[in-house]
Design a protein that fits this description.
The complex is a heterodimer. Chain A is mostly helical. Chain A has nine helices and no strands. The two termini of chain A are 17 Å apart. Chain B is mainly alpha-helical. The chains are: A mainly alpha, B mainly alpha.
Chain lengths: 164, 186
């Protein structure tokens, strides 16, 4: 599985690099340099996030997570998870490590889905740091507002679909 | 109105949110060490380090894809497909582009901005961003899969499939109700 994904991703890289090279060496160099720089900047975050989420999941006693976010917590758990997602700062590493840690230590899958959906759609810091500088502010608020019900819908659909 | 160049953000390898996570990680690691002993601590550490090593090539590929797409993307061509009055099909196309386009926020928001400039309606732009956020494959493969495993990720994506369209329709309803989203100050 992981090998297939690596092959897929690196094929995409190869195709894009080839197209860039056809358009000129400068473009190829710039793309490679920007991508590699981004990667180096991400490394410490990923390391801390991955190693940290493992220990976090282990350290958190199930008795704490289960009543709030466990499979039995139902709609209330989804609400808590959605609020948590909206308030979680940081990039993909932070949100996914916390979600994974919660899942490992007994949170219900629909609750984790609500958490990561809310975090992905309207984590407050991201709206302010990324979206507002690059898009008309009114569109950003419109998008955030219509996104409000989506974590609940995702959790509800996940409950209907049932665990794989 | 010409599209402003995306602002260059100064990126640092370490910031306060990483520091907070690092603090939590260290506290958790110490707790596990003291409570469960050295043996258990090392077995968890080994598992995490393996996962980390497993992620690296994917993350590097993801970064390179994002960088090249930002350089190569014919934004105007993409935007032509989701023009004004594009109806339900426009939402579907916008959601499909959101699924297809890799890259991080630095790629996606300028593209969404270009959509607007090219005359896409609010619904299409919203469907595009929500789709990229929730069902974009690059993000799921690079980030989500290593943390959660394939069963969980596929299941989450299936649950999220209708959401970009729902968000787009809601946005159109809000606009029809009188919300003015184009700024008149230009």
């Amino acid at each position: 599985m992981t090998l297939a994904i690596n092959i897929l991703l690196w094929s995409v890289v190869a195709i894009l690099a080839f197209i860039a090279a056809m358009r000129g060496r400068v473009l190829l160099n710039e793309g490679s340099r920007t991508g590699a720089m981004e990667f180096i900047l991400l490394l410490p975050r990923i390391g801390i996030g991955v190693v940290g989420s493992g220990f976090l999941a282990e350290a958190l006693p199930n008795e704490w997570i289960a009543p709030w976010l466990g499979p039995e917590s139902g709609f209330f758990g989804v609400v808590i998870a959605t609020l948590g997602g909206a308030l979680t700062p940081g990039g993909p590493v932070v949100g996914f490590s916390i979600g994974a840690a919660a899942l490992k230590s007994g949170a219900g899958a629909p609750q984790v889905i609500a958490y990561s959906t809310a975090w992905a759609l309207y984590a407050i810091h991201r709206l302010i740091i990324w979206e507002v500088p690059m898009m008309p502010a009114r569109i950003v608020w419109l998008r955030a507002a219509v996104s409000l019900p989506l974590p609940f819908m995702a959790a509800a659909l996940a409950m209907v679909l049932g665990r794989p | 109105m010409t599209k402003p160049a995306p602002p260059r953000r100064r990126r640092r390898a370490f910031d306060w949110s990483t520091a907070a996570i690092a603090f939590l990680a260290i506290a958790a690691a110490v707790t596990v060490y003291v409570r469960d002993g050295r043996e258990h601590f090392l077995s968890i550490l080994l598992g995490d380090v393996t996962l980390f090593a497993d992620m690296l090539p994917k993350v590097l590929a993801g970064c390179l894809i994002g960088a090249f797409v930002t350089l190569l993307l014919p934004r105007e061509m993409v935007a032509r497909w989701v023009g004004h009055e594009s109806g339900f099909a426009g939402l579907l196309i916008a959601a499909f582009f959101g699924f297809l386009l890799p890259g991080g926020p630095i790629t996606i928001y300028p593209v969404a901005g270009a959509f607007l400039v090219m005359g896409a309606d609010a619904g299409a732009v919203v469907a595009f961003i929500v789709s990229w956020t929730l069902i974009g494959y690059a993000r799921a493969l690079v980030w989500e899969l290593p943390f959660f495993g394939s069963d969980f990720v596929i299941w989450r994506i299936i649950a999220a499939l209708p959401l970009p369209i729902v968000a787009g329709l809601l946005a159109r309803a809000v606009v029809r109700a009188g919300f003015e989203y184009r700024e008149n100050t230009q």
